[in-house]
Fold:
Amino acid sequence: MIETKTISSVMPQELTSCGLPLDMATEHIGTLRRSDDIADDFPALRDRMQHDGYLYLPGYLDRELVLEARRDIFTQLAAEGYLHPGTALMDGVAGLERKNGLRPDIAKASAPLQELLYAGRIMAFYRGFLDGEPLHFDYTWLRAVSPGNGTPPHGDSVFMNRGTRKLYTGWTPLGDVSYEEGGLIVLEGSHKLDRIRNNYGNKDVDAYCSNRPDGPEYASGEKWWGGWLSKNPTHLRERLGGRWLTHEFRAGDLLTFTMNTVHGSLDNHSDRIRLSCDFRYQFASEEVDERWVGENPVGHGPGGKRGKIC
Structure:
């Protein structure tokens, strides 16, 4: 079993994202607000989601099942050369090639991961939180992040807004994640900003202008917009306001947030692969974005592109 890392509540003097230092002044960065004190009070959780734009529930999921999923996934990644030879499987030490991977194929084939994300406690959580029958996307964003830069800030709406807007992202680390390995960062209050909800959030990364000369290149995926708001988190925070919020995470933690909550990740300064996954839940009765459901979801591939006259 993986050795439990030392998790400290003390934020280090320096954190980076996208290869750039964050502003570490206390008015510009802070820790995520915990909601484990109201974890079984769904009306209170809904109110807090509306106010904060996220819910952070430390230890909400079965830690042993998380670690079982970690072992299952790293077994496959080790066979593909992701891990450094001769190191302990559960440590996840990155191989020399240091590949990054988004692996929905492994996620789909991993029985313990499927049980963790789409059955039992987490299904009961979203049923209670939504106050209705939940439906999850069939596509799972399983991420194996090698040492290096984190994910630039973005909101999830631009990637999955063809169905209901009452959609929530869930994120869980598949192992303990220290500040050094770099977990998620959330921009405080960003879900309430008009420029996010009514401008940026209405864009679609798979929409393109079919009447323009480069239309065929966007249709094929040769060209694309990544959906990022910025590759400089400090400058973005200065423009939008609020604080960057983060934490050290442990296997079993659950973080869930709205489609308009701006988030990204810290850089991974360790020698390990940061293993995590994100997933989506909505009301079963509402419209679903066709890109992310079915036996083989098309995702952001050519089948998901949508041309329009600009």
Notes: The first strand starts at residue 16 and ends at 17. Residues 108 and 114 are 7 Å apart (CA to CA). The two ends are 55 Å apart (CA to CA). The chain has one domain: 32-284.
